[in-house]
Amino acid sequence: MIPGQPLTELDKQVMYWEGKGKLVPTRDLIKTAEQIEGIRKAGVVNTGVLDEVAAKIHEGMSTLEIDEIVHNYTIAHGATPAPLNYEGFPKSVCTSINEVVCHGIPKASDILEEGDIINVDCTTCLDGYYADASRMFIIGKTTPEKEQLVRVAKECLEIGAEAAKPYCFVGDIGHAIEKHAKKYHYGIVRDLCGHGVGNKFHEEPDIVHYGKKGTGMLLVPGMVFTIEPMVNMGTWRVFIDADDPYGWEVISEDEKPSAQWEHTFLMTENGVEVLTY
User: What predicted TM-score, i.e. pTM, was given to this entire model?
Assistant: First the structure.
């Protein structure tokens, strides 16, 4: 709200829901036109990174080679890979195979095999603005069960995006995602979530992928955030790999496969706009 200026619809909605005791965004979470354009440009590079991975990923390559593809493409396009050295993360991308839910660290010893499913998660920083997305890749031919998991995880992302309407709540997104996953008796990871993004790598709000409608923060036009449901074939519970010296790799508790897709979204007056692919 700007003193002396008439109230906008956004102002009215924020004041109304704040009066109802709901969590509402602070002004700094609502991006300016200039910031949105910067995030959009970062999203173009981030999409290009994943397209480059898609063109080159194959059986027999190491996840370290994927890291090299991501790093080289990002730098060549005037950007930086945000994960590199972020809170001790040692590489430029997350590569999570099969039961690794997320934050898999690329290694020369991790060789892609026929039937593997892998999530490649990239975040690009361009001119101080961030965009974040991940895709699943199936290596060669895999089992019908893994194929279904990958497909349903993508559907969860799409259903979550459909539920994201202006002046809805984070819980509306999570409720829709969890409802779809439960049809297949899949677990939605609760220990990790989507997040605000754009001016920083991680911002408020947390975008949880389970829960009740009408809970969590109010989402208003101008907010930018990720939706990135982690869908486990079995339990939703996870643990940190004790053999990971960096303390990053997250694994499904029952060590069944996991799948995840992610986009960065801009909330508009008409719903969300995808800023990454």
Answer: 0.96
